[in-house]
Design brief:
- This protein is of the alpha/beta class.
- The chain has one domain: Rossmann fold, CATH 3.40.50.
- The chain has 7 helices and 7 strands.
- Strands 3-2-1-4-5-6-7 form a 7-stranded parallel beta sheet, sandwiched between helices.
- Helix 5 links the parallel strand 5 and strand 6.
- Helix 1 runs parallel beside helix 2.
- The N and C termini lie far apart (about 50 Å).
- Bound molecules: nicotinamide-adenine-dinucleotide.
- The site of nicotinamide-adenine-dinucleotide has 27 residues, from helix 1 and helix 4.
- The site of nicotinamide-adenine-dinucleotide (NAD) has 27 residues, from helix 1 and helix 4.
- This is Sugar dehydrogenase.
- It comes from Leptolyngbya foveolarum.
Length: about 270
């Protein structure tokens, strides 16, 4: 992919799932990767280990790539400030931010504890904004950069019992569009990709064959997505191949946003 080799990339929430796959994908494309984690240094170190062993397998000396782990809770401004300081000092700058960290908590919308609702807004939406602010400040002083946000089909599709999650991802869409417009003349592009059902730890049903089959029966392509399929799209949006795209959400969902119940046409 054009424009990733040698770039410095920060991936939030990169110790598992889609973020982990993104970190590994970008490193395989020759990027220097900072793996952010909140509370799992061991898993983050395993991601770096995998990046380095992939390099060796590809015949590239692992020390040719800089990489690091960095602890931060993205919902805390002081953590985010310190994370950006560490990443910029260690990698020598930042070219690409991937806002991936997120969580979902379900519950009836009139009953869910406000503390759970607040967590989803604070991490998924406010955390992405805190990181975007820091990245943009750096990009403005260094000739530009790219932000890719990991949104969700639920920025568009309502999801009963997930009001905090849907609101946070709809807010992420508004942020993507607003920042893209505001910084379009500054060589800063901001886009989102929106996964559908993806096989990661956020979805405990992935290990329950019956529930998984039920969920997949609603997906036009008949299967869940993989973290690697999401990583490929994040890489495309961050690369020079997407040089003229800004303010967009690319849905990566096996057709989930295409009114699946209309798949079988009415004949009457
Ligand atoms: P995951 O649980 O494996 O990954 C979420 C990551 O975010 C974890 O590593 C977690 O530690 C990290 N995180 C949570 N709170 C954090 C905080 N305060 N600070 C820093 N990191 C924090 O699940 P995933 O599916 O890989 O989720 C990644 C992103 O993808 C999320 O934003 C999620 O909303 C989005 N997404 C996932 C799916 C899916 O079906 N898996 C669908 C749509 C969108």
């Amino acid at each position: 992919m054009r424009g990733l080799k040698g770039k410095n990339v920060l991936v939030t929430g990169a110790s598992s799932g889609i973020g982990r796959a993104i970190a590994i994908h970008f490193a395989a494309a020759g990027a220097h990767v900072a793996v952010n984690y909140r509370s799992s240094p061991k898993e983050a170190a395993e991601v770096i280990h995998e990046i380095r062993s992939n390099c060796e397998k590809a015949g590239i000396p692992a020390d040719d790539l800089k990489n690091m782990t960095v602890q931060a809770d993205v919902s805390k401004e002081e953590d985010v400030d310190s994370m950006f300081e560490q990443v910029i000092a260690t990698l020598g700058g930042l070219d690409i931010l991937i806002n991936n960290a997120g969580l979902q908590i379900q519950g009836a919308s009139h009953e869910i504890p406000i503390s759970d609702f607040d967590k989803m807004i604070d991490i998924n939406m406010r955390g992405a904004y805190l990181c975007a602010r820091k990245a943009i400040t750096h990009f403005l002083d260094h000739g530009g950069g790219v932000i890719v946000n990991d949104s969700s089909v639920h920025e568009l599709i309502p999801r009963p019992r997930y009001v905090g999650y849907t609101m946070s991802k709809a807010g992420m869409q508004a942020m993507t569009r607003t920042l893209a417009l505001e910084y379009a003349r500054d060589n800063i592009r901001i886009n989102s990709f929106a996964p559908g059902a993806t096989l990661t730890p956020i979805n405990p049903w992935k290990d329950d064959p019956e529930k998984k089959a039920d969920i997949e029966s609603h997906i036009p392509m008949g299967r869940s997505g993989t973290p690697e399929e999401m990583a490929a799209v994040a890489a495309f949006l961050a690369s020079d191949e997407a040089a003229y795209i800004t303010g967009q959400t690319l849905f990566v969902d096996g057709g989930l946003t295409l009114y699946p119940s209309f798949r079988t046409p009415w004949t009457g």
